[in-house]
Amino acid sequence: MTLAQQFAAYSEWRSHLSGGLEAFRKCLSDNELSDAQTDLRLRLLLDKLHEDRLQVAFVAEFSRGKSELINAIFFADYGNRMLPSTAGRTTMCPTELMYDPSKPPSIELLPIETRERHSSLSEYKRFADQWTVLPLDSGSPEAMQQALHSVSEVTRVSAQEAERYGFASGGQNGAARRRADDGLVEIPRWRHAIINFPHPLLKQGLVILDTPGLNAIGTEPELTLSLLPNAHAVLFILAADTGVTQSDLAIWNDHIGAPGGRKKGRLVVLNKIDSLWDELKSAAQIDAEIAKQVASCATTLDLPIDQVFPVSAQKALVAKINGDDALLQRSRLNALEVALSEELIPAKQEIIHEAADAEFSDIHRRTLGLLESRLSGLREQLGELTELRGKNKGVVEYMMGKVRIEKEEFESGLQRYYALRSIFSQLTNKLFAHLGIDSLRTLISSTRETMIEATFSKTLSDAMENFFRVTRENLKKSDGEISEILTMMEAIYKKFAVEHGLKLGTPHGFSLIRYEKDIDRLESWCDTHLNTMFQLMTLEKSKVTQRFFEEVALQVRHAFERANRDAEAWLKAIMAPMETQVREHQIQFKRRLESIKRIHQATDTLEDRINELLHVESELVSQLRAIGNVAGDVERQLEIGSSRLRHAA
Ligand SMILES: Nc1nc2c(ncn2[C@@H]2O[C@H](COP(=O)(O)OP(=O)(O)OP(=O)(O)O)[C@@H](O)[C@H]2O)c(=O)[nH]1
Ligand SMILES: [Mg+2]
After folding, report:
1. Does residue 272 line the site of ligand 1, with CB under 6 A?
2. Is residue 86 in contact with ligand 1, taking CB distance under 6 Å?
3. Phi, psi (deg, nearest 5) at residue 512
């Protein structure tokens, strides 16, 4: 299957799944089986499915053909070269291609001057007024092409100004500028571009990230710290006419090649193989030459050969536009597209599948638990009333006493539950003392003080190290508290199941590993980009401090914010079934007592009451059946998803 077909199949599955979940949600609320918490969980899950995005990033030194490859894979249908692709430097700023239907087709450009204020890209994304917006006429390829040319615009500024925007003279990105006769230097006009247009794949949630070469990635830490690690696939492009150069290697090592082997979703493309199409050579000779180059790239990058894909982006684009199948074959683009879709879609489907499965199964189980306990309560009541047929007043009184005693037992059990609940809230307070944003804020400000007052590089370096140590300790302590909470809840669940017949199952766990990994990644970036002998010796101390807070500490904060959100949701989710079932149980006791009392006082006849309950019973049974049907649909979609995943594996 081509990328487009795989993608379409995936989107279709996703939309069936969300249709099923929507029906499930409606069924719960129609039957008054939902509560605010459950409904919120289902809504969040549905939002996640709707907003589901697949990110593919193209990274390479300049002029390797990133933009041309994007044109060939995604935009050949427009019959022209959409993204500008020319010799020399072309794409000057990172460019995201996506589709957000809430906005008209447009190209949004963030001026390079915003670099001066050191706010991160994600912050700017929240302020629309900082961006220059050009409308995009998606009906006209020529007009689109014209508008897309903005991504190659440059501007000329003084050397000092360029430096303020992070284009240091002589430094790593020195080559990002060219000195003109008048002493001005040329720098990109824009810091970032977002192209919003309704291409079929983009509409289905694909996001493409085109990047400029010349280590321009390094000047925008958010790309390295967030956009690239989160991309579902990263294509690294080399060119057959240049081979692997030093600067190619630097980009590979800094941004993609993880030490220690194959990383999922990372593909290497050897582009421009048409430069080897020598008419004086036979096809076999040319193939051998390509194979030799592939092998040498694989060795240099320490990768298996089958992870390097030789292609000609340019010929593929021409072939697709002209409908020239033989040329398309020769360009070998197809093999790359297949590999890309195989890396990309199953990985994504797995994540979505896992989230949907976990969330849905939990809610489904709880709803069933609730319904079943309603039904068994009702049947118990029916049993009691049936036994009363033909019995005298004394027996009715005895029965009433029996239910009262049971109710009292349950209520004294509840006293213990309330005591445990206060321990639960003590434990959660302890958890948030370590995981909460307040404690991180305190750590950030004390680290900042130390760094501002530091006179030695060693003090700076120690402060950064200490920051990560404390952060990690906080996560570790939080992990401990999480397992304490879980152990306690397991005990409570079990107790109430055994002593009072509550149907609770077992509470599900929660792990902070994901965030620990985020912290590892951020620390290793800091250790190689900021907390290094070289940086500490060459950068001003205030600059190191500033970069540490604006780039690293900010991302740590984001990770903690996500961890807090997840932890809160987890705490609610493990507490909720207990609360619902306890409430349900109390209601049932009240109903049982009520109906025996009414019979005792002869306000109701026994037969009327029994008939009423039989009617409620049949309603409950049909609710169970209805839930079973809609849940079955969702389960079928989940099953289709997992069988596809097994197939892909
Ligand atoms: N012969 C040949 N030339 C190619 C191929 N792909 C791209 N090129 C040429 O290489 C040059 C650079 O291509 P771009 O797509 O602009 O490269 P890029 O990696 O996006 O470069 P920057 O945007 O500057 O970072 C252009 O002149 C393309 O026409 C190919 O497969 N074969
Ligand atoms: Mg480009």
Report:
1. yes
2. yes
3. -100, 10
Q: Which ligand 1 atom sits closest to the C-alpha of 84?
A: 16
For atom 3 of ligand 1, the residue with the nearest CA is: 272
Ligand nearest to the CA of residue 313, numbered in listed order: 1
Instruction: Compute the distance from residue 587 Cα to the ligand 2 centre, in Å.
Output: 67
C-beta neighbour count of 298 within 10 angstroms: 17
Q: Give the global pTM.
A: 0.77
d(CA 296, CA 298): 5
Measured CA to CA, the distance from residue 221 to residue 528 in angstroms comes to 13
User: What does the pLDDT average to over 428-445?
Assistant: 94
Local structure of residue 183 (DSSP, 8 states): S
Spacing, Cα 90 to ligand 1 middle (Å):
9
pLDDT single digits (tens) 557-576:
999 999 999 999 889 888 88
Cα separation of 596 and 83, whole Å?
79
The rounded distance, in Å, linking the Cα atoms of 383 and 365 is 26
Q: Is 322 touching ligand 1 by the criterion CB < 6 Å?
A: no
Report the atom number in ligand 1 closest to the C-alpha of 62: 25
Helices and strands in the chain, H and E counts:
22, 11
Q: Which one of 90, 145, 210, 223 would you pick to mutate in the ligand 1 pocket, going by the greatest count of ligand atoms within 8 A of its CB?
A: 90
- 476-486: string of b/e by CB count within 10 Å (b at 16+)? eebbebbeebb
What's the length of the chain?
649
- Do the bridges between strand 95-98 and strand 206-210 make them parallel or antiparallel, or are there none, so unpaired? antiparallel
Domains belonging to the chain, first-starting first, are 21-51+355-386+607-649 (no CATH), 52-153+189-331 (3.40.50.300), 388-604 (no CATH)
Among protein residues, the one with the nearest Cα to ligand 1's atom 2 is: 272
Task: Indicate if the pLDDT at residue 170 is higher than 60.
Answer: no
pLDDT tens track for 611-634: 888 999 999 999 999 999 999 999
Task: Please tell me the distance from the alpha carbon of residue 599 to that of residue 583, in angstroms, as a whole number.
Answer: 25
Task: Give 339-367 pLDDT, tens digit per residue.
Answer: 888 877 887 788 788 888 988 998 898 88
Which of 64, 68, 81, 95 for mutating ligand 1's site (highest number of atoms within 8 Å of CB)? 68
